Amino acid sequence: MKSLLGIKGLGSDQLSDLIGLGVQIAQQGRSTDDSMRGLTVGTLFFENSTRTRLSFELAAQKLGAQTMTFVPEHSSMSKGETLRDTVLTVAAIGADILIVRHREEGVPGQVEEWTGRPVVNGGDGTNEHPTQAIADCVTLVNRFGSIEGLNIAIVGDVVHSRVAGSLIQALPMMGAEVTLVGPGEFLPQPGETDLDAVVGKADVVYLLRVQRERGADVDPDYTERYQLTEARAARMHPEAVVMHPGPMNRGLEIADQVADGPRSLILDQVANGVPARMAVLSRIAEGIG
Ligand code: CP
Asked: 31, 37, 51, 129: which has the fewest C-beta neighbours closer than 10 Å?
């Protein structure tokens, strides 16, 4: 694999391989792998991040690579340097693999074209966030043994969510049945608007953040209709779980008691971000030789 720009473009064999390797690394616990020794991973996050950037950096370090953290606010972009000159500069300093997050769709692919280096999409606009989807698949396999046949409700601000953009492709590829739930203006096509109609049937209720920074606005009754409250969670079947990619709007799409409750896999999703990203970096490093 040269780069990972999206789930789109991956075959089911490749996706399955990345998830399987992520599961294997997660189950091994502490890693002594140094297959990336001598390589440098540069993280270029033009939008803020806690989970994705830190877990990529830790993943790279666990594989023996060095990391370079580019911080736009502290960079020469403040003197007018262009995006293209900036990424060419980071590559010239010595980043062998670039992890790129940007508010505009397609920028990671553009960085790959400009630099010729392997690029991983750390989230581009409302398009894709492929490593979040892979981390979530690792989490599901760890919990259920397989994704095949799971009934997964993705709830909330689907249209603004790059996580949903990747999950909507990855989960069916792995054999899950996905139902999108939310008010009509948050759904990419006409879908299920009644959360109460699906909450008792789902194996997974996957909540999405309302993305106000991307223009999402909610009606005053959003919480009443779409929040996963303690009462709604109590109607889920005994083995069903709750997921959210974070960061959460507590009290909007999810109640505190549910986020912190026994069904929540939210911190498992965060933890599995490291082995999932180790799997992606390992496969890219194999291509570098
Ligand atoms: N889920 C996710 O992408 O979180 P961060 O924005 O903190 O990286």
From this structure: 37
CA 225 to CA 229: how far, in whole Å? 10
SS3 content of the chain, % helix, strand, coil (to 5): 45, 15, 40
The verdict on whether omega for the bond into residue 172 sits within 30 degrees of 0, i.e. cis, is no
- Verify whether ligand 1 is closer than 6 Å to residue 123 (CB atom): yes
Q: Is the CB of 132 under 6 A from ligand 1?
A: yes
Enter the pTM of the model.
0.97
Which atom of ligand 1 approaches the CA of 53 most closely? 8
pLDDT tens figures, 22-40: 999 999 986 668 999 999 9
pLDDT tens digits, residue range 165-177?
999 999 999 999 9
Separation CA 60–CA 8 (nearest Å): 24
Asked whether 284 and 2 are in contact (CB, 8 A), the reply is yes
50 lines ligand 1 (CB under 6 A): yes
40 vs 42: CA distance, rounded Å: 6
Token pair 């049937």 is found at 201
Ligand 1 atom closest to residue 246's alpha carbon, by position in its atom list:
1
